[in-house]
Amino acid sequence: MNAPTLSAHEQAAIEAFDKRQLRSVLGSFVTGVTVVTTRDAQGKMHGLTANSFSSVSLDPPLVLWSQATSAGSHAAFNESERFTINILAEDQHGLANHFATRTPDKFAGIDYDEGIAGLPVLRECSAWLECKVVSRFPGGDHVIFVGSVERIRQSERRPLVFGGGQYLVADPHDLGRAPVGTQGAMKSQPHAMRLASRHMVRLAQTLDKTLALVAWGNHGPTVVAWQAARTPVAADLPLGLVLPVTSSASGLALAAFLPPEAIERFVAAELRENARNESADLPANAGSLSALLESIRITYKATRRPGPFHGDRVLANAVSVPILSPDGVAVLALTAIGPAEQFDAATEASCANALKAAAEDISAALKDAANENSPVAR
Ligand SMILES: Cc1cc2nc3c(=O)[nH]c(=O)nc-3n(C[C@H](O)[C@H](O)[C@H](O)COP(=O)(O)O)c2cc1C
């Protein structure tokens, strides 16, 4: 089969990337972080931060890493017969920065033990591999070292992660199963919280809205987490803020999916207040509230009319969606809030749809977790 020929235009497009773009693309491949250490013939210790570490073979046990030929410690590693891979733990990003900086004595003030042939083994890491060099390969501006693994050790500490040019922490994709026996609506809350926090980080960035996670507390709808937008809706985003049921998007989103007996004691006083204020767009009696909640049960979206945010002079708009337990009861409400002059919650459908998709995702995960924990599934 003939290789497809590329037009000059296609060829140019393939080749047109610079170092910065290449670095950025490579940053999409998320790695752990290691400090590779050795000792030279004079007994001086060397170490550098490296994320080029990779496993090669299980039998025989081989690993590799690559070093820039421009590194200050390159001659030492090139001449040494051994290296030790210290896989850094989640909280060791300071150590990673330390060993990524050229300094005359990198080991001053650093806690380490001596391993095979006296090589430094850094303390408090996630895991360690003590290796003997079996091959060195030139690789452009790097040299690739392949080592035979002679001794390994592992701790309980979670590993540090690096990707997109920054240090990260690793969480399981679903942030862990719901604890066994937590099928009840409110018992799903901790699991829903974990799942929602991840969505909130992403949504606050993509929507540029301040996000709130609201639980039904013993004083009614209560903010349990905030995620600020690039321009937060207010300077203070207090946790534990209690919201009204009938005039906040979050309160309405929760109330629509809670048993009537759960909301009754909160709404009676609010309905009287709404009636006294004669606000046309707020429910003033049980009938109008029930119609409003019914409409929310159809769309899964609740909005609020522009109102002051947390006593602030800023008028805010909000849209809220419920996160539901496997039996359809509101566990939390996920709410986007923005200044009214920039955010028309009713017309900005894309925002409400993004929230709804996230809430559905979380509700589905709660259902999966409950099925996994149910005696039938086991
Ligand atoms: C997260 C991270 C990963 C790195 N990975 C490597 C690597 O795999 N190979 C390398 O040669 N340098 C890597 N570096 C850069 C070196 O750590 C840095 O150049 C260090 O100063 C070299 O030390 P030296 O000059 O004392 O030898 C990395 C830096 C960071 C922050």
Number of E strands: 17
Name the poorly predicted regions: 178-183
Number of domains: 2
> Can you tell me the CATH superfamily of the largest domain?
GAF domain
Tell me about the biggest sheet? 7 strands, antiparallel
Q: Determine the CATH topology of the largest domain.
A: Beta-Lactamase
CATH class of the largest domain: Alpha Beta
Intertermini distance:
52 Å
Radius of gyration: 28 Å
Topology as a string of helices (H) and strands (E): HHEEEEEHEHEEEEEEHEEHHHEEEH
Specify the overall morphology.
elongated
Q: What is the structural class? A: alpha+beta
Strand content: 25-35%
Unique ligands? flavin mononucleotide
Strand order of the largest sheet: 3-2-6-9-10-5-4
Q: In the CATH classification, which architecture of the largest domain applies? A: 2-Layer Sandwich
Continuous helix count: 9
